[in-house]
């Protein structure tokens, strides 16, 4: 396929995802306003000029995504990766789950779990219906719906945002040029359903990959998705990121995507310190999470709305938090910050 044609195909594919996300949200919020009018009053409407700026940021994100594939950071095929089978299988279930989500949101039930779900042994901050999700992160149904929910939430840009960790990750690994690719170890903290690990596998086909998460259901889903792709299977472990079950200085690189806004402030520091401990001297730590007020004040209204409409108990605090200060406190240096659409990236190095 010529470059122009494949770029056009990519843009059309992304536009399709965007229209789908918008259509889903418009229809479901109209229905919600009819059935639960009080919920419809939550979150301020987003002004037209902010919507315009958001569209500009999406265009920039997609351009960078395309360019990184052209530069060979990852194969072009990754741009078109979409879990189609899951989409057709689970979209109807996602719709069927919506009335329960509204009910929980209206009654402000934030810690509601089915009797068969084991909640003992998890930290209390974690036993929550984040985003009003049925059974939080603790059921197989939740794991099956999660990727689709996130893609709809971000109008199809969740994967392009996740992919922005790949260039700094590969750049950071250059510090270990003498290490054979097979001996390169990369850990993804809070790997969830394995979406980021799948991308890292495409960018680093030979590296040894590791994933850690608190949710057994999400790890089962990750194992299932990652088993379907060629290459060595990443090693997945159920553990709390506050006590990473790995040796000191073990990984050449550590990544974490969309975790920190779901942690209380004190836990954010502990997790950063753990990531520092397991990173090799000279290694890189790449965080991707939500934008913050300090560098994206023009999107304050969207951040406010996210905190209010979704159940995200630590998000507001996160938007004010100084993660650079936290990373420095843990011992990281040469910290670079980037912003792409609704995500912010912290690229930090452990002194060699
Ligand atoms: C918003 S999801 C992000 C998942 C994935 N990284 C992604 O890109 O979609 C947050 C994830 O963090 C995990 N998590 C939350 N607190 C954790 C902790 N203390 N230790 C390990 N995992 C945690 C959850 O189980 C969930 O899979």
From TrEMBL:
Identification of the protein by name: Methyltransferase domain-containing protein
All copies of domain Methyltransferase, residue ranges: 186-283
MF-aspect GO terms: methyltransferase activity
PANTHER family: METHYLTRANSFERASE, RHODANESE DOMAIN-CONTAINING PROTEIN
Matches recorded under Gene3D superfamilies: Vaccinia Virus protein VP39
Pfam families: Methyltransf_25 (PF13649)
Keywords: Methyltransferase, Transferase
One of the GO biological process terms: methylation
SUPFAM superfamilies listed in its UniProt record: S-adenosyl-L-methionine-dependent methyltransferases
């Amino acid at each position: 396929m010529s470059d122009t044609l494949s770029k056009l195909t990519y843009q059309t594919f992304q536009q399709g995802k965007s229209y789908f996300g918008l259509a889903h949200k418009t229809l479901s919020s109209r229905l919600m306003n009819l059935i639960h009018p009080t919920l419809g009053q939550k979150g301020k409407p987003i002004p037209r000029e902010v919507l315009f700026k958001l569209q500009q940021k999406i265009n920039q994100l997609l351009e960078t995504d395309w360019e990184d594939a052209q530069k060979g950071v990852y194969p072009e095929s990754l741009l078109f990766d979409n879990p189609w089978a899951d989409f057709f299988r689970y979209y109807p279930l996602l719709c069927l789950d919506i009335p329960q989500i509204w009910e929980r949101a209206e009654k402000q039930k934030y810690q509601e779990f089915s009797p068969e779900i084991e909640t003992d042994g998890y930290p209390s901050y974690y036993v929550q219906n984040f985003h009003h999700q049925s059974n939080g992160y603790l059921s197989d149904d939740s794991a099956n719906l999660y990727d689709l929910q996130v893609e709809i939430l971000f109008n199809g840009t969740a994967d392009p945002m996740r992919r922005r960790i790949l260039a700094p990750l590969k750049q950071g690994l250059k510090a270990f040029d003498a290490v054979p690719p097979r001996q390169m170890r990369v850990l993804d903290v809070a790997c969830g359903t394995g979406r980021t690990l799948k991308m890292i596998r495409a960018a680093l086909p030979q590296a040894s990959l590791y994933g850690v998460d608190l949710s057994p259901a999400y790890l089962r889903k990750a194992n299932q998705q990652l088993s379907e792709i060629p290459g060595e299977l990443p090693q997945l472990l159920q553990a709390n990121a506050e006590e990473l079950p790995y040796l000191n200085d073990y990984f050449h690189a550590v990544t974490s995507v969309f975790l920190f806004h779901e942690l209380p402030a004190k836990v954010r520091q502990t997790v950063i310190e753990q990531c520092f401990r397991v990173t090799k001297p000279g290694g890189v730590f790449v965080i991707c999470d939500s934008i913050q007020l300090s560098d994206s004040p023009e999107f304050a209204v969207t951040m406010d709305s996210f905190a209010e409409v979704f159940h995200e108990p630590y998000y507001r605090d996160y938007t004010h938090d100084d993660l650079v200060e936290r990373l420095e406190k843990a011992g990281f240096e040469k910290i670079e910050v980037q912003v792409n659409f609704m995500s912010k990236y912290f690229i930090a190095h452990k002194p060699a």
